[in-house]
Amino acid sequence: MAAGSRKARHDLSTFKDSLTGSCLCGSITVTINDTELFTKPRGHLCHCANCRKVSGSVVSANLIMDEEKVDIKDRDGTLKSYEDKATNSGNPVYRYFCSVDGNPVMSKVDMLPGKAIIKMGMMPVIPTPEMESFAAHKHSWFNKPDNVLSYKILRTGELMDD
Ligand SMILES: [Zn+2]
């Protein structure tokens, strides 16, 4: 059986207590311990240019979590961080990634002490987002999911009119 033909859909009840994902080479494993990941919309899509760069895609799927609920294992010591100073606010974003395969893992910002911004692309399933940020910068062909709040720029800032 080809790898691509493996079962693609996951039974969400498997993740009722926690959700675990790993980077491409398997060195870094991230577990989020939370019982409400799939009981309501969670997390957010970020359309900022920097998040797009590190996601390698049209949008980044992020989830802000209390650090105490996040368990990161760095088996081979490959977790590195990049201090991203090219931000709108000038406040650095510390972007963590696997230095072997380049997999984005999480971000941290001084404005959110005690929080980890998990890059959800490494997870087997991504919860339905509740909001998107930097919507003013999103691609015209990108259709957000229903009932997602659209902030023009920063999360909790001004909303889009549409
Ligand atoms: Zn890796």
TrEMBL record:
Q: Does the keyword tRNA processing apply?
A: no
The record ties this protein, via InterPro entries, to: CENP-V/GFA, Mss4-like_sf
- Enumerate the PROSITE patterns for this protein: CENP_V_GFA
Keywords in alphabetical order, please: Lyase, Metal-binding, Zinc
Q: Where is the CENP-V/GFA domain?
A: 19-152
According to the UniProt entry, its GO molecular function terms are:
carbon-sulfur lyase activity; metal ion binding
Q: Which domain of life is it from?
A: Eukaryota
Coiled coil feature spans = none
Per the record's keyword annotation, is Ion transport included, yes or no? Answer: no
Family note: Belongs to the Gfa family.
Name of the protein: CENP-V/GFA domain-containing protein
